[in-house]
Amino acid sequence: MSEAKRILAVDDDRIFLKIVEHDLTKNGFSVITAQSGEEGILLAKTESPDLILLDIQMPNIEGGEVVEILQESLQTQDIPIIFVTALLSKDEEIKRKNIIGGHYFLSKPYKIEELLEKIDKYLG
User: What would the pLDDT profile of 56-83 be if each residue is shown by its tens digit?
Assistant: First the structure.
């Protein structure tokens, strides 16, 4: 049996992290969580996840800045990132075809089927 794909979820909302960890673990993924952009960057470098779920609006370092920092490092530049954010509505999601800054995104609250579909596009 192959090893579970590792997903790093970065969000300052503890409840969201618990929900996403539960949903993804139930679907066969190994989940690492970080409650800040700084912690997310550190874990991306030390844990080498297969994919990162990233909130945009966080204190200190926002999601966009996290992406810039990760893309500057050879160690983390190729890790796919999916933004999961409350900043954009479902209508905005449809209008932008689920892409922001070249990365897929989902608006909160997400549907697990939609999240799994986006993850599968990268890891399938």
Answer: 889 999 998 999 999 999 999 999 999 9
The answer to whether position 1 is within a domain reads no
Host domain of residue 119: 6-123
Q: How far apart are CA 78 and CA 1, in angstroms?
A: 25
Q: Is residue 61 part of a domain?
A: yes
Q: Cα separation of 45 and 7, whole Å?
A: 13
* Sign of the alpha-carbon dihedral angle for 14, 16, 18, 24: negative
Helix and strand totals (H; E) in the chain? 5, 6
Assign residue 116 the CATH number of its domain: 3.40.50.2300
Count of CA atoms in the C-beta half-sphere (13 A) of 83: 25
82's enclosing H/E stretch is strand 81-85
List beta partners, residue 34. 10
Domain total in the chain: 1
CB atoms within 10 A of CB 6: 16
The tokens for 106 are: 């989902």
Q: What is the pTM of this model?
A: 0.89
- What type of residue sits at position 1? M
